[in-house]
Amino acid sequence: MKRRFFSILIFLPLFFASANELIVYRPQNSENINEVRCWIQILDENGADVTYTKARAAYAWMDRPNTLYWYEKSFYVSGGMACHLYLDSKNGEKYKIRVYTPKKHVENFPIPENLQTDWDSNEFEYDSNKVNNSAEGNYNPLKVIFVSPTANDNGFYEPKWFIDYKAPEFWRVTKPRR
Predict the structure, then answer these.
(1) Strand ranges, E, within 79-156
(2) pLDDT tens digits for range 65-114
(3) Percentages helix, strand, coil for the chain, rounded to the nearest 5?
């Protein structure tokens, strides 16, 4: 038992030394849409799902940002949550990140029957080697991406998610992407 404990203590710092931290933040919306979870999926350059083999993750609630909880099973975010992804980056991998909600997990949210479907998002490309170019010519790694629901031109929620590197507009609550 002691050997296992010490090997874990040795392994964790080695993993985090070669990992990039990327925060997947889902700002709060209205109460019903906040309860709709969206699961995070990470794909490698070949399209293989590497969510649980190339990443570790913890989450925090925005009213308690200094307290991290390790996910026990699957990586997801609800309204007001931030997922801290620790991506394996020792070889400078490129990843595609998407979020989705299976229609059977859309609870307490009124959707017309003709729109009851799985909720998918765009794919966000994340290169653990490449970083954003600033005005001074320095490079800074991308640290946060934002997940927000989408809405039609009338402002009604659609069964989709949108991932962006820019924060969504805000007015009392986060405005959905149109």
Answers:
(1) 81-88, 94-101, 119-121, 124-127, 132-133, 139-140, 144-151
(2) 899 999 999 999 999 999 999 988 777 788 999 999 998 887 667 666 66
(3) 15, 45, 40
> Hey, what are 71's tokens?
């996910």
Mean of the per-residue pLDDT values of the chain: 80
Contact indicator for 128, 95 with CB cutoff of 8 Å: yes
Q: In degrees to the nearest 10, what's the CA dihedral of 61, 64, 65, 69? A: -60
Give the integer Cα–Cα distance in Å for 82 and 95.
Answer: 19
Is the pTM higher than 0.85?
no
- The dihedral through the CA atoms of 15, 49, 117, 166 has a sign that is positive
Q: DSSP 3-state assignment of 177?
A: strand
Q: Name residue 22's amino acid.
A: L
What is the DSSP secondary structure assignment for residue 123, as one 8-state letter? P
Q: 144 with 128: CB under 8 angstroms?
A: no
Q: How far apart are CA 168 and CA 147, in angstroms?
A: 8
